[in-house]
Amino acid sequence: MDLYFLRHTTLSVDNGMCFGQSEITVSSSFLQEAADTMKLVPDKHNAVYFASPTRRCIQLAEFISKRPAMQDLRLADLHFGDWEKQYWADIPEDQLDNWMQDIVINKVPGGESYGDVLFRVQSFIEEISKKNHKTVVISTHASVIRAVLSYVLEIPFHRAFDIHIAFGSITKISVDKDSFIVEYINRV
């Protein structure tokens, strides 16, 4: 089975805004970016499509597939809780410092930790890898793709933040029984 993880395209959002599961509009360059990403997806007509439940991910999956994508909450970005749609500069420094001590373990006030994201993603990967699909396309977020890489490469999640995941990029992972092979990361 081939799994293609797509990061959504660029967004129309102010610099310095904290968002995760909030609905953020795609930028005016969406059609061109989505067309560029679509060229990177082989076997797109026979693939099974999944998407994070955010509109930005659904739009990309449905642009490529030309049909509805299955939405899965486990593919959602980090829930930034009380910080959603706040500017990083406006978040109380003590809260931010506490979270930054260990973002994998520490939860955002009213939200979740990156460890929670990793747990959700691991559940999705374990479930999907047992299916009998040939090609699966997953439209999601950089944090989810990093969690996937952390899981399949068996590296600490905090190290996965050293991996650049560009907007509209694709990461391919092949599944053979219980074995994962990272074919490529961040192809644009």
Structural class, from secondary structure content?
alpha/beta
The CA-CA distance between the termini, in Å, is: 21 Å
What does the overall shape look like?
A: globular
The overall pLDDT, averaged over residues, is 96
Number of helices: 6
> In percent, how helical is the residue content?
25-40%
Main sheet specs: 6 strands, mixed
* Radius of gyration over all CA atoms, rounded: 16 Å
Structural write-up:
By secondary structure, the protein is an alpha/beta fold. It is built from 6 helices and 8 strands; from the N terminus they run ββαβαββααβααββ. A 6-stranded mixed beta sheet has the order 4-3-6-1-7-8. A two-stranded antiparallel sheet has the order 2-5. Helix 2 links the parallel strand 3 and strand 4 (70-71). Helix 4 crosses helix 5. The two termini are 21 Å apart. The model has no long low-confidence stretch (mean pLDDT 96).
